[in-house]
Amino acid sequence: MASPELARRAQELREQLRFHDHRYYVLDRPLVSDAEYDRLMRELERIEAEDPALRTPDSPTQRVGGAPAEKFAKVLHAMPMLSLGKAQTEEEFLDFDARVRKALEIDSVAYVCEPKLDGLSVSLRYEAGILTRAATRGDGSTGEDVTPNVRTIRTVPLRLACAEGCTPPELLEVRGEVLLTKKAFAELNRSQEEADEEPFVNPRNAAAGSLRQLDPKITATRPLSIFLYEVGESSIRFATDAEKLERLSALGLRVVSWRRAQGAQEIVAAYRSMLAARHDQPYEQDGMVVKVDNLEQRERLGQVSKSPRWAVAWKFPAEEEETVVLGIDVQVGRTGKLTPVARLSPVLVGGANVSNATLHNEDELKRKDVRVGDHVFIRRAGDVIPEVVAVIKEKRTGQEKEFLFPAVCPVCGASAVRNPGEADHRCTGLSCPAQLAGRLSHFAQRTALDIQGLGDKLIAALIEAGLVKDASDLYGLSVEKLLELPRMGEKSAQNLLEAIDKSRRTTLRRFLFALGIRHVGEATARALAQAFPGVRQFYTLGVEDLQAVHDVGPEVATSIRQFFDQEQNRQVIDRLLLAGVAPKAEEAPEQGAFARKTVVITGGLSAMTREDAKAEIERRGGRVSSTVSKKTDLLVAGEDAGSKLAKAKELGVRIIDEAEFLKALGR
After folding, report:
1. Which of 119, 148, 184, 322 sits CB 3.0–4.6 Å from 223 for a disulfide?
2. How is domain 598-664 classified at the architecture level of CATH?
3. Domain 76-315 sits in which CATH superfamily?
4. Residue 507: in which H helix or E strand, if any?
5. Is 650 helix (H, G, I), strand (E, B) or coil?
């Protein structure tokens, strides 16, 4: 039986990895380096290997990657797009080679090696030589249809090359990586900064965000490239990987650079050569992929649940340098997260000058015991945000100063709270300048106050001009003030003011959601609005009062209480009410087809939008959730329903199609 401490650590690691998977694969905004993610994954793999009873079916070690986003049509891969096992050292690679040779019962294996590219994995499907579909990898089994976006990438042929007299393959699915070169990434970030938009963290993040734009016209403006390296479904039969890559190249497809090597020692030599030249390449690479060349041997080797036995990604070592911590301060992000940052004596790491490094959060700061004046090792693995790896405590003189994490936001002075079970401190201030753009964007969105025309660029212009310091200032704008903004015409100004005026007539549910209280989504806002009819009532409600509301647990109740405890938040709300914003209380419907039921909608609906369907369910007393669980009463399955449908079947949730749904609505 596993020790309680080991079981607790395994659970912590699973939760951390799921969180980072969501940030990386769904939101495209990673928070940790690949090296740190790999460390967490390897620790979990080690714990589960020591005690298999701790290996749960939903463990990150048992899956390929994160779930696909909701905003594109789903694509079920006929053949899974697997991830690769990793080797961090030469010894680990030699262990891989030994396993392959033992399984094949031969002394030497022919391999193909190629750079491990750092982009977004995609699948391109050609039928009779014509590109018919492009999909992201998603979770390995189900991806997203990004065909219109991929068609804008000039290195993707829309028709395969075919010499005169030849017949294009009936079916060819090729797989590869969409990425940005280092030069293209630098140019893209310059244009982002010129447009007063947030720069991308790294080329991989930029490539993922560019490819997953809803508007292909935006993707077309991004200088994306593609390199292909594998084949999925195919009417062509190959004997070796080398033959496969040569054929793809002959068909006009851009394949990754590769070489064939016989035996482990040739692979070791190729790895050392590739490592030495990594910074001379036009694109980021973080290792070398090694694949068994003979495809019949691959069949014999097979695969485990998450990766093939015939391939491995031999990672490049994270690059480290020594420097000195000159100071430590705290940055406040757009979501209110407080991040400690070490200000460093500049040093060249991984081909770039580094003068700042993230310390992630208070726990990491304490665990590493970083102090002002410390000599530290800095790591910059490829293109990731630099981080402090370790303190060189032997070089301490006694003059180093400990850093105390602030109890208040360094920008606005509101309380910086850290709730139980969370790693981060967050500012609770509604008018915090560091969060203002993000909060205004949330306030104006369709499901909140629905201020049409108030987009991110206009919000940025209003803030820069000093016209808006919190949401209440929107209601004091005039045509004269708006005309001071660049590229603002009188008609546009009048339309915006009409939309702002219209937003005064809203519901308490929308108003509470618009405030951006942490953990308060649309469903929770609705439950709160039905329980307490007036917004000022929340000024004095206790945690126990809030927990009595359906859908409000201890964590959510604490977050709500912390929000209304801040005087600046109450002042903003009072100014909004004084400006004529009149949130109307809502009564909970007690009867209806969906009364007291938790409903999940998945897939596409032809008769109405997802938002309209949600509104219809709520009008009939139901609650709409975004996730399937044991508490789900009903799943509405539209076209191309994916993983949620599978999970609902697994849990025995009642499932209806769109026709049954419309019938329940009386249509």
Report:
1. 184
2. 3-Layer(aba) Sandwich (3.40)
3. DNA ligase/mRNA capping enzyme (3.30.470.30)
4. strand 505-507
5. helix
| CA dist., res. 122 & res. 433, Å (int) | 39
Q: Indicate if the pLDDT at residue 246 is higher than 90.
A: yes
Q: Which of 593, 596, 598, 595 is nearest to 648 (CA)?
A: 598
The one-letter amino acid code at 119 reads: G
Report the distance separating Cα 127 and Cα 459, nearest Å.
46
Answer for the pair 442, 511: CB distance below 8 angstroms, yes or no. Answer: no
Sequence ranges of the domains in the chain: 4-62, 76-315, 320-395, 416-584, 598-664
CATH of domain 416-584: 1.10.150.20
Report the distance separating Cα 336 and Cα 562, nearest Å: 14
Whether the Cβ atoms of residue 322 and residue 385 lie closer than 8 Å to each other: no
Contact 72, 137 (CB under 8 A): no
Decide the pairing of beta strands 337-349 and 225-234.
Answer: unpaired
- DSSP3 helix / strand / coil % (the chain, rounded to 5): 40, 25, 40
CATH number, domain 320-395: 2.40.50.140
What is the spatial distance between Cα 549 and Cα 546, in angstroms, rounded to a whole number? Answer: 6
Candidate ranges 15-29, 49-63, 146-160; pick with highest mean pLDDT? 146-160
- How far apart are alpha carbons 62 and 304 in whole angstroms? 10
- Lowest mean pLDDT across 194-203, 344-353, 414-423, 444-453: 194-203
The confidence score (pLDDT) of residue 23 equals 66
Sole residue written with tokens 């499932």 = 655
Measured CA to CA in angstroms, residue 517 lies from 46, 335, 481, 513, 520 at distances of: 39, 11, 30, 7, 5
Q: Report whether pLDDT(294) > 90.
A: yes
Q: Which two tokens stand for residue 465?
A: 């001009």
Beta bridge partners of 110: 262
At 18, the pLDDT band (50, 70, 90 cuts) reads low
Residues 6+ apart with CB under 8 A from 290: 93, 96, 111, 112, 113, 267, 311, 312, 313, 314
Q: Measured between alpha carbons, how far is 459 from 463 in angstroms, rounded to an integer? A: 6
Task: Please name the residues in contact with 602: beta carbons below 8 A apart, sequence gap of 6 or more.
Answer: 635, 636, 637, 638, 641, 642, 644, 645
Q: How confident is the model at residue 398 (pLDDT cuts 50, 70, 90)?
A: very high
Instruction: Report the candidate in 113, 108, 112, 115 with the shortest Cα–Cα distance to residue 241.
Output: 112
CATH superfamily to which 4-62 belongs = Helix hairpin bin (1.10.287.610)
Element (DSSP H or E) covering residue 123:
strand 120-127
pLDDT higher than 80, residue 6? yes
Catalytic: which of 116, 337, 368, 644?
Answer: 116
How many CB atoms sit inside 10 A of residue 286's CB? 20
> Could you confirm whether 86 is annotated as catalytic?
no
Encoded tokens for 234: 């195919």
**More confident position, 470 or 588:** 470
Return phi, psi of residue 313, to 5°.
-100, 110
Residue 533 has which token pair? 């009819």
Owner of token pair 């009386």: 666
Q: Residue 57: what pLDDT? A: 62
The string of pLDDT tens digits covering residues 470-489 is 999 999 999 999 999 988 89
Confidence check: pLDDT of 618 > 80: no
CA distance 155 to 214: 21
Measured distance CA(301)–CA(104) in Å, rounded: 7
Distance of CA 473 to the CA centre of its chain: 32
Q: Tell me the C-alpha distance between 618 and 611, whole Å.
A: 11
- 3-state DSSP assignment of residue 337: strand
